[in-house]
């Protein structure tokens, strides 16, 4: 309702800037690749691990995240990524007040999940505590042969309408958590989000 006239602290939480490290929320439907994504981001940041190392090839089968998972990243400033399982959708809002930036993962290889993901995203964007946080929408799993392109996903999600109605700055990227495609861009976005551009 309020179109962000006053400069609200990002994520509505003054704590994010002070004592504890900023918290980035990682949300999305079950099976979108959130857990693997955050693991890969951590390995990219680990010293001495080249980005192109083929860790993704022999990844164990992903286990759906049930509950919440905390991961620290250094960008170089420390941030905490809180991953919430897709089945936890009804209680996602209880974590919104501590959020400094939001990553929303969509499985670009799963057309049947598009409508439910779109509804979830709209619900997240309309939440008052998130009215001014930067949002990154990740169309993941582009390594799979059946994935939909960014143009197709934008069209199915009606991203133009979503972006024009949203109060948040929204960025979209294509990624593959499995082979690492796009993850350097994700890290760059996270660093930019940390700088709190007004």
UniProtKB/TrEMBL annotation:
Q: Which GO MF terms does the UniProt record name?
A: GTP binding; GTPase activity
Q: Which residues of the sequence carry a binding annotation for GTP?
A: 86, 140-143
Q: Where is this region: Disordered?
A: 46-68
- Residue ranges crossing the lipid bilayer per the database entry: none
SMART domains for the chain: ARF
Q: Which domain of life is it from?
A: Eukaryota
What Pfam family is a match for this entry?
A: Arf
> What are the protein's UniProt keywords?
GTP-binding, Nucleotide-binding
Report whether Nucleotide-binding shows up as a keyword of the record: yes
- The protein's name in its UniProt record: ARL16 protein
The lineage is: Eukaryota, Metazoa, Chordata, Craniata, Vertebrata
Q: Which gene encodes it?
A: Arl16
């Amino acid at each position: 309702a309020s179109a962000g006239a006053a400069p609200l602290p990002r994520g509505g939480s003054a704590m994010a800037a002070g004592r504890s490290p900023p918290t980035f929320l990682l949300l999305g439907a079950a099976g979108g690749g959130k857990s693997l994504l955050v693991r890969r981001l951590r390995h990219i940041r680990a010293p001495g691990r080249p980005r192109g190392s083929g860790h993704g090839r022999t990844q164990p089968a992903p286990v759906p995240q049930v509950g919440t998972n905390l991961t620290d990243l250094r960008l170089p400033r420390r941030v905490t990524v809180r991953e919430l399982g897709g089945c936890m959708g009804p209680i996602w809002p209880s974590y919104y007040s501590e959020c400094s930036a939001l990553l929303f993962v969509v499985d670009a290889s799963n057309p049947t999940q598009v409508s439910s993901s779109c509804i979830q995203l709209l619900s997240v964007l309309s939440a008052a505590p998130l009215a001014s946080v930067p949002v990154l929408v990740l169309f993941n799993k582009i390594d799979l042969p059946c994935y939909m392109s960014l143009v197709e996903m934008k069209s199915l999600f009606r991203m133009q309408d979503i972006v024009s109605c949203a109060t948040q700055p929204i960025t979209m990227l294509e990624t593959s958590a499995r082979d690492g495609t796009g993850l350097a861009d994700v890290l760059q976005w996270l660093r930019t989000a940390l700088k709190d551009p007004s």
